[in-house]
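User: structure tokens for this one?
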Amino acid sequence: MCPPSQEDKTGTLKADVAVLGVSSVALLAATIALSVKGNAASPATSSAPGDTEVVAAVAMPMVTDFVALKDGSMFLDFKDNVCAGAQIGVANKICADLEVPTPQAGGNVTAGYVGKLDVGHLTPNKDSYWSRAMCPVNVHWHLGTEHYSYGQFDENGNGPHDNIPRPKWADRDLSAGKDRDGFRCNHYDEKDERFTKPYDWKYCVNMEVGETYEVHWPHSAAGDCSTVNQYQTPFCDGVFCNLDVETFTAIAQDPQNIANAVGVHGQVFTVVNDESYFYPDMMRGMTVDRK
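Assistant:
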């Protein structure tokens, strides 16, 4: 017996192919017409018939001038700075004029040196600042050291402009007007180009290779931590950002509260022109060895 006849299903396929064929011809004709029209509108060239020119598309790397973008890199509006003017209006006083002695950062930090200031029952904070909910609210530096450590940074140190005699401790202040420099480290060597080769500073003003600088990171538990307002100038705006006068007056009744909530990292550097001494992060606090 012959197998049952099967319905010819190729008719639809042939019709579709025919339609696609006509469409392709129409598209080709339109493309040719546009090409001819474009050539007619283009100016004549001196290339000989049949000559072709192959141009390779090369992706050129984009070079960003970050220094040129510095002035336009601000992404916040200073009017929205919640810490502006937060500094509590308490007048500065000379320590000797205060009714009671107050704790101060030790001027002499020589290992083994014991000062004579009696601070009563107050104890210094020896924990990591972050563990006390403190964050850095400012970074600034002093020309020369503000503190003194015999054999490390003292009156026997040196730099590109020599050293200074031992100054009065009360005369040290943030750099303003005529700079009053401090002590130098004992590393400077005028015969070693690491201490003398100039560096093209991009962001730091009046900083010099070979000089000694003391960097400070004021920390506060009342800072606007982890926001765009964390770092402030003047730094007291950052220290008191989230602290009003009434609250400050209340907690200051026990000075230990202040010692637990405010502190300063300080670290001394001699600047050298040598990439092997590069420190990648000078914003979040002093550099601490892992050991």
